[in-house]
Structures are given as structure tokens and as C-alpha cells.
Design goal:
5-stranded mixed beta sheet; elongated; single chain; about 50% helix; 5 strands; 2 domains; about 15% strand; 7 helices; 60s Ribosomal Protein L30, Chain: A; alpha+beta
Length: about 240
């Protein structure tokens, strides 16, 4: 009888041990279950950010505007910076108010906001001296440049009619000199020369690649100076 009681106690203790062990293991499994969901979430976030970076391009001016907005939200004093879209709208309005739509066009491309100046309206034929009548308009452009932090590009373009003078042996020199004349005007209006870059393309970049210089109208369009508010900040301007 005593032997049976001992065996019964041993069996009870055995099953009690396994019961407690199973309960403990289940509790541990329940405590660790959150790690699976957490790991899945981290994996999804990683994939999302990799995808985001792979399909995006870094826009320095937009990045700077975002940075300034964040600083402003945190209480820092940040000077207002007009966006390229705002500059585009301001220039279009000014051109319309001055009734210059036939000689000045405002455009936008991946590089920034462009002002296309018809060559014959700003320079005498074969020359690189600005007509005095253009000064008021260029002064307005200078004022717009002053209130912005963007770098500027000035390009000179010609048609394919050859030129050969003592001052301009070819259209390369003429196109470069016209771009330089516009930059000199801006510099005389107290604009920082370090913000400007110039280029002379002669007849190598017609407005319409298909037409080229095949007609008098196409050649007239190709004789131009292009002022571009570039999609990049001038050095040091982001610190304002």
C-alpha cells in the first residue's frame, strides 16, 4: 500500500513538473512574439526608404528650403526665400506689364527659370553693346536677382550667318561678348559677380533643333541671350 502511494506521488510530481514547464514555455513564447512583428516592420521600413532614395533626385534648392522651414519651425530666424515658381510668376507679370512679350519670353526647365531675350531687341546687329532702352528692363531683372539666393547663368546665342570683324572674328566671340555685356550690366548694379557664369554657344544650340537656322524666322529666334535663375543656391547664401 505504501509502495502504491509512493508511486502515485511520484507520478503526480512528474506530471506537475511537465505541466509547469509547458506553461513556462508558452509564457516565454508569448513574451517574445512581439519581436516577429517588430522585425517585419523594420524590414518594410528599410525597403521603403531604399525605394524612396532610388527613385528620387536631390534638389539642392528644395532641400535648402526644407531645411530653412525646419529651422523656422524650431524658432530660428530665417530670411524668406522666394521659390523658383514665384520668380517665374513675377517675371511673367513684369514682362506683361511692360508689354514685352514679343521680345522677352519666360520659360522653365530642369535647370531653373529662364528669360529669353531676343538679340536684335537688345543689341545692334553684329555688336555686343546693349541698347540704352534695355537698361530699365535689365534693372528690374537685377532687382529680382538681388532678392534671391540663386546662382545665375547668362548664355549668348547667334544664328549661323558668319561674322568676321576685328572685334568678333566669329560667332563664338560675338555670343560670348553679348553674355558678358549682360553680366557687366548686373555687376555695375552691385550684384555679386561670384553668382554668375557665362557661356557663348554661337549657333550650336538653336531654339528648334529641327528647324535649326533654315528660315529667317528661325534665325531671328536663335539670336538671343538667356538669363537663367539656376536651381542651385549661391555659395554662402544659404547661411542668411
Amino acid at each position: 500500500m505504501k509502495t502504491q502511494e509512493k508511486n502515485h506521488k511520484r507520478q503526480s510530481a512528474f506530471w506537475e513538473y511537465y505541466k509547469n514547464r509547458d506553461q513556462s514555455g508558452a509564457s516565454e513564447r508569448e513574451d517574445d512574439s512581439w519581436m516577429v512583428s517588430y522585425g517585419d516592420m523594420m524590414t518594410l521600413l528599410l525597403v521603403f526608404f531604399v525605394l524612396l532614395v532610388s527613385v528620387s533626385t536631390i534638389d539642392s534648392s528644395k532641400l535648402q528650403l526644407i531645411t530653412q522651414s525646419m529651422r523656422n519651425a524650431m524658432g530660428s530666424e530665417v530670411e524668406y526665400v522666394p521659390t523658383l515658381r514665384e520668380i517665374e510668376e513675377t517675371l511673367k507679370q513684369s514682362v506683361e506689364e511692360l508689354n514685352l512679350q514679343e521680345v522677352v519670353q519666360v520659360a522653365r526647365d530642369k535647370h531653373g527659370v529662364q528669360l529669353l531675350l531676343r538679340g536684335e531687341s537688345f543689341f545692334p546687329s553684329g555688336e555686343a553693346t546693349l541698347y540704352p532702352k534695355t537698361h530699365s528692363f535689365l534693372t528690374m531683372v537685377a532687382s529680382e536677382i538681388t532678392r534671391t539666393p540663386y546662382n545665375m547663368s547668362i548664355e549668348g546665342h547667334t544664328d549661323n550667318i558668319p561674322i568676321s570683324t576685328a572685334r568678333f572674328p566669329s560667332n563664338w566671340e560675338l555670343s560670348g561678348a553679348r553674355a558678358a555685356a549682360v553680366v557687366r550690366f548686373f555687376e555695375e548694379n552691385d550684384l555679386d559677380r561670384d553668382r554668375f557664369r557665362i557661356a557663348g554657344y554661337a549657333d550650336t544650340k538653336p531654339v528648334d533643333a529641327t528647324l535649326g537656322n533654315s528660315t529667317p524666322a528661325a534665325r531671328a529666334l536663335n539670336r538671343r541671350v538667356v538669363i537663367t535663375f539656376l536651381n542651385e543656391f549661391a555659395e554662402g547664401m544659404e547661411k542668411k
